[in-house]
Every structure is written in C-alpha cells, then in structure tokens.
Amino acid sequence: VHVSQLSNRFVKHPLDVVKVGDIVEVNGFRGTVLNIGVRVTSIQDTGGNIKLVNNSDLKNILNRSRTSSSAVCDIPIPYTADLEKTEAVLQKTAEEIVEKYPDLFMEAPEYLGVQGLDRSTVNLRFSARVEEKNLYKAARIMLREFKLGIDAQEN
C-alpha cells in the first residue's frame, strides 16, 4: 500500500468541504472562499483582507453556507412604554418585513421575548432565518423597520 493511498482515506480534499463563494470560518477568520488551489485556499473577509489557509488546515473549518443562519436584533424600549402594545406593533411589523423583503427573509422574524432589563430599557429580541450572506443586512433592515413601526405607533 502506497502512503498516498492511506492519506486519501483520512484527509478530505477541500472541494469536498467548501466551494468557491461559500462563507466559511477558519480559526476565527470569517470570509468568502475566493480560490481553492492544490495546496492553499484563499478566503476574503468583508474588509477585503485575504487569508491564505493551507488545505491541510481546513479540517477545522465551519462552512456557514450549507444551512440557514439567524439574524438577531434587540429592540430597546423604555420602561414607560406599554409593553403589550409595543409587542403587538412589532409583531405586525415583523409580518410586514417578510412581505417587503421576500428575497432576504425566509420567513417572518420571530419574537423571542424579553431579552434583558437594562437601567432604562426593556430589550426585546427578534430572530429571522436568512442565508448567511444576508446575515448582517437582515439585522440592519429589521432594526430600521422596527424603529419605523414604533414611530408609526406613536403618531
């Protein structure tokens, strides 16, 4: 038995784990796979930084493109606000978000409940299933739409 035959049984080729365009995380570095070479895979983060990873080190890789992700946002509301009324407004807004952005959200954001009590606010948490590539964009859109929903409630 040749050594190369043994190694093929234990080491996966990078193409079995990731493909160009996948969003991955390797040792805390998160980015998009740009190129998969014979020995090295290049990954670029959102800031344009490129990390070269030896293919033998890809055994500790997290491929975030294989499943949906959860965009999460916390909405702080003052203690003086009517909690149940605000929850109802935000729930209605959540249903409108998925209608307004169907290409971004897989389903309406889910209200998870009160996340925390700060000094001056009650923090309400929402989560939405999205593709990994839309994770941060979806969270920003939720924050904006929930703010607009609260503003409309007050007027």
What can you see in these coordinates?
With 155 residues, this protein is an alpha+beta fold. It has four helices and eight strands, in the order H-H-E-E-E-E-E-E-H-E-E-H. The strands form two sheets. It has a five-stranded antiparallel beta sheet. Strands 6-8-7 form a three-stranded antiparallel beta sheet, with helices on one face. The N and C termini lie far apart (78 Å).
Topology overview:
Blueprint: H1 3-10, H2 14-17, E1 23-26, E2 29-36, E3 40-44, E4 50-54, E5 61-63, E6 69-78, H3 83-100, E7 110-117, E8 121-130, H4 135-154
Antiparallel strand pairs: 1-2, 1-5, 2-3, 3-4, 6-8, 7-8
Relevant terms:
155 residues, 5-stranded antiparallel sheet, 4 helices, 8 strands, disordered N terminus
**How much of the residues is beta strand, in percent?**
25-35%
User: Order of strands across the widest beta sheet?
Assistant: 4-3-2-1-5
**What is the H-and-E element order?**
HHEEEEEEHEEH
Residue ranges: pLDDT <50 for 5 or more in a row? 1-12
Report how far the terminal alpha carbons are from each other.
78 Å
Determine Rg (CA atoms, Å): 21 Å
The tally of beta strands, per DSSP, is 8
Largest beta-sheet details? 5 strands, antiparallel
| Content-based structural category | alpha+beta
Helix content: 25-40%
- Silhouette: elongated
Entry summary:
It is built from four helices and eight strands. The longest helix is centred in the C-terminal third of the chain and has 20 residues, at 135-154. It is α+β, with helices and mostly antiparallel strands and 155 residues long.
